[in-house]
Design a protein that fits this description.
The complex is a heterodimer of chains A (about 240) and B (about 280).
Chain A (H helix, E strand, L loop, with lengths): L5 E4 L4 E5 L6 H18 L3 E7 L2 E6 L6 H13 L9 E9 L8 H8 L3 H9 L3 E6 L6 E4 L14 E4 L3 E5 L2 E4 L4 E3 L2 E5 L20 E7 L1 H12 L7 E4 L2
Chain B lengths: L1 E5 L3 E5 L19 H10 L8 E5 L4 E4 L3 E9 L3 E2 L2 E2 L6 E3 L4 E3 L5 E9 L29 E2 L19 H5 L2 E6 L8 H9 L2 E6 L3 E7 L10 E2 L4 E4 L4 E5 L6 E2 L3 E5 L1 H7 L7 E6 L5
Parallel strand pairs in B: 12-20
Antiparallel strand pairs in B: 1-4, 1-11, 2-3, 3-10, 4-9, 5-8, 5-10, 6-7, 6-9, 12-19, 13-14, 13-20, 14-17, 15-18, 16-17, 16-19
The chains are: A alpha+beta (about 240), B mainly beta (about 280).
């Protein structure tokens, strides 16, 4: 697939690179590859590199004095043959308890969509989701791959508090709240896994390009895992995969 | 150490922020008015990276359990040491046991307390800036002990001070660059955006909402990066100027991008004050 990229200045210290405005894994992989090439070639020039669904934003350490010159530099990096070893990507298995005690919106979704809660859980936990990027909150993964039968509008009035670990559906997306936060998504379960841990050198275990699966667990298993995690005694099951 | 006797309205430890963690969804944070914070650190001969206390509208009361030199810059909330007025933008020696407090608000929204060698609170992801779920605290509380550097040798107070630049606080022009979605605005929308005065509504370290409405025909964009100083046009037609604690991504059209100078200037403005946007020359 050939991609047509556009380059725009974003203030005087950043450049926004955009792909076609669609959500697509080939685009994601192209964005990640470009990011990796930039990191190898010119990493010292940048203070941050931010991925969006169809964009890569590069914030420079220094003010950009010559935009077109920078764009030429970036284009030549993009066009370099890919000599880089692609980043290692993992499928992470995330335990989720879909018990009604946590899945406080399951009944409502079940009623509106005319699906049993078991069917909702099945549809939600048998998919493999792609991590497009992290945003909104520290450790919040933007996931692609929700089954279209589970699309469900956000709540008109967001809850003031959604608990950390809540697994939820918002429109065409599903996600996990990495910390207590206000939020308008519909909650279907809870995971004991920490998606953002400042005590770790790498506070998020997952990254753009990784995949996530959800494994249903019981309430008992949830509390047991929670204890294990408290003692840092649990390793999230992961499998290496390459496209 | 500095002991917090009264927490005041909203005060937090800030430095130049958490740069390089946006791909984990971590906001930059850092001092809202970097110009004033830099001034305070410079007057003390500190590094510009040293952490300061950002004090919103005063109100707090702090006791120095260790002698040090301080400098306060930014907004003027009538600071006193042991009830004696002190000057802004001056290097001032503070004895052990002295109490810093604030009084009447003259101008500005935030002032910066710099101490010799900077505050030494916990450093997480390369920054001491307070932020929810990253640092233990999001603001200082009564009874907190704020650690200072252990190797401080105080100097006599300087006899000179820099006069606060009043125009810095009075000027309501915000210089901007075109945002990535600026070109999607029609002629009328651009005209309103660049000629009208806007009134500041609710605001905090995450962002400044503005009251006036620009009829908005633009649809949302696919979630993409936003930066400190990005001006978003929301579906209701109201504008939000994102500030230091803003999220790293968003889905509203990004119609303007404030210059660094304008971000600093805006952070000294409060509710119901006016601002207007002007466009800087495009980058070549």
């Amino acid at each position: 697939m050939e991609f047509k990229l556009t380059y725009k200045p974003f203030g005087n210290k950043a450049i926004l690179i955009e792909w076609k405005p669609i959500i697509n894994e080939e685009i994601l992989n192209d964005i990640i590859l470009f990011k990796e090439k930039i990191k190898i070639e010119k990493t010292q020039l940048f203070s941050d590199i931010i991925i969006g669904y169809n964009s890569l934003t590069l914030t420079y350490v220094a003010v950009i004095t010559n935009f077109s010159h920078k764009v030429e530099e970036l284009k030549s990096i993009y066009n370099k043959e890919s000599f880089v070893i692609s980043q290692e990507n993992f499928i992470w298995e995330i335990p989720v308890c879909y018990d009604l005690a946590f899945g406080i919106d399951l009944k409502e979704i079940s009623k509106v969509l005319n699906l049993s809660t078991d069917k909702i859980i099945k549809l939600h936990s048998e998919r493999i989701y792609t991590v497009f990027f992290i945003g909104f909150l520290p450790g919040f993964l933007y996931l692609g791959g929700l089954h279209s039968n589970l699309y469900f509008d956000r709540k008109p009035n967001p809850r003031l508090k959604v608990v950390k670990g809540a697994v939820a559906i918002g429109g065409k997306q599903t996600g996990i709240y990495p910390s207590n936060s206000a939020g308008g998504w519909n909650i279907i379960g809870k995971t004991p896994i920490h998606f953002f841990d400042v005590k770790k050198a790498n506070p998020c275990f997952a990254k753009a390009g990784d995949k996530i699966t959800f494994k249903p667990i019981s309430l008992d298993e949830f509390y047991q895992l929670e204890k294990q995690l408290e003692k840092d005694n649990y390793i999230i099951p992961k499998t290496l995969f390459n496209d | 150490m500095i002991k917090v006797l009264k927490a005041g309205f909203y005060s937090s430890i800030q430095d130049r922020g958490r740069v390089g963690f946006a791909s984990n969804g971590v906001p930059v944070s850092g001092v809202m008015d970097a110009f004033s914070a830099d001034l305070a650190n410079s007057i003390l001969n500190n590094s510009l990276k040293d952490a300061v206390l950002e004090i919103t509208f005063g109100g707090c009361e702090l006791q120095f359990l260790t002698a040090t030199n301080i400098c306060i810059s930014g907004g003027d909330f009538s600071p006193t040491i042991n009830k004696k007025p002190i000057k802004l933008n001056a290097n001032i020696k503070v004895e052990e046991g002295a109490i810093l407090s604030f009084g009447k608000i003259h101008f500005g929204v935030r002032c910066y307390l710099a101490v010799q060698k900077g505050f030494q609170t916990e450093k997480i992801l390369n920054s001491r800036s307070f932020y929810q779920n990253i640092t233990k605290n999001t603001r200082i509380q009564k009874g907190d002990l704020l650690p200072l550097d252990k190797n401080i040798s105080t100097k006599e107070s300087a006899t000179s001070s820099l006069k606060p630049i009043k125009s810095y606080f009075e000027n309501s022009e915000l210089e901007c660059y075109k945002g990535p979605e600026f070109e999607l605005l029609n002629h009328q929308q651009r005209n309103i955006l660049l000629t009208k005065n806007f009134t500041i509504s609710n605001n905090n370290r995450m962002g400044y909402r503005l009251n006036e409405i620009i009829s908005n025909s633009l649809s949302s964009i696919l979630t993409s990066a936003v930066l400190v100083g990005t001006v978003q046009l929301t579906p209701s037609g109201k504008l939000i100027v994102l500030m230091r604690d803003c999220q790293v991504t968003g889905g509203y059209p990004r119609i303007l991008q404030l210059s660094e100078k304008s971000i600093n200037r805006l952070s000294q403005k409060k509710m119901s004050q006016n601002i207007y946007f002007t466009l800087k020359n495009c980058l070549s």
